[in-house]
Amino acid sequence: MTRPEPAVSVVVPMFNEESVLPLLAQRLRAVLDGLDEPYEVLAVDDGSTDGTAAGLAGLRARWPQLRVLRLRRNSGHQAALVAGVLRARGRYVVSIDADLQDPPEAIAEMLRRARAEGLDVVYGVRADRSSDTRFKRWTAAGYYRLMRRLVGKQVPAQAGDFRLLSRAAVEALRELPERSPVLRLVVPWLGFPSGEVSYEREERAAGRTKYPLSRMAGLAVESVTSFSAVPLRVATWLGLAGVAVCGVLVVVAVVAWLAGSTVTGWPSLYVAILFLGAVQLLCLGLLGEYVARVYTAVQGRPAYFVASDTGADGDAGADRR
Ligand code: UDP
Ligand code: MG
């Protein structure tokens, strides 16, 4: 009863996106119907609490290629993406945000390049972010600079989660033991031949951002700790620097003592103590981030639970990773 594998699956994670649904469906469908190939759209409903589920059910009645993966609880953008990508059946799998900031029209171009050049990964790269706030652009630039340093130059700057993966790349992702890898770093790290398609990032079509500052900070910390142990060594370097400074101060003190000058300087003493205390706390905190990662990994809890998968081959039922 398995249907033929679609040529392309489009994975759309969504959390409370009822207001963009009609427009999203209209634009996505226009592009995908135009391909003239079998496709599936895999909407991942990340535990939405608004009318998203009802909206998707309504769309499904008129759009047979729409498949709805419902997560039992809100698990976050990354986990929702992974859930969708690993369950997509297409020969190529494209992930795209629901809010139409990434133009669905670029999917055709991604597919064309992947086929023409035999690429396994095609990144959507934001050529123009003028629609984003200055703060978002500034933090994003810092994030990508740091990630290129930590993970390597193969991480394309300004490539978010709008990208195409071949079946081979999806299977490689599946092999990873991580529950919910940060895809935008892990995908380049896999080392498949890749290309880029640039596009203009548009304004969110409707609704509000689901990425408040706290989530952005969380993604940044996870990105760093999942790819680099360098921060753990910060303590060592600071310690060595402290020893060097100490040595100089001892020499200075001895010379002053020989010269017969009395030692004053309580303020410098407590500033030094406070500084060292702060550095120690900072290093402890860094260590804590890594311990937390180990803790989460050892617990081995799934990053998400799939409540239902409607429209794949009937209802594939509950499942988890
Ligand atoms: N999203 C999700 N689960 C969440 C938060 C966001 O599936 O917990 C989806 C959201 O619906 C959208 C995508 O992730 O399709 C990107 O989120 P958003 O557009 O709010 O982020 P921004 O573009 O502001 O960074
Ligand atoms: Mg957005």
UniProtKB/TrEMBL annotation:
GO cellular component terms given for this protein: plasma membrane
Domain Glycosyltransferase 2-like: 9-173
Annotated compartments: Membrane
Xref: Gene3D superfamilies: Spore Coat Polysaccharide Biosynthesis Protein SpsA, Chain A (3.90.550.10)
InterPro entries documented for this protein: Glyco_trans_2-like, Glycosyltransferase_2, Nucleotide-diphossugar_trans
Molecular function (Gene Ontology), one example: glycosyltransferase activity
Source superkingdom: Bacteria
Similarity field: Belongs to the glycosyltransferase 2 family.
Electron transport among keywords: no
Protein name: Dolichol-phosphate mannosyltransferase
Annotated signal sequence range: none
Pfam families: Glycos_transf_2
Keyword terms of this UniProt record: Glycosyltransferase, Membrane, Transferase, Transmembrane, Transmembrane helix
This protein's record includes keyword Transmembrane helix: yes
Native species: Micromonospora olivasterospora
Main location: membrane
Ranges annotated as spanning the membrane: 237-258, 270-292
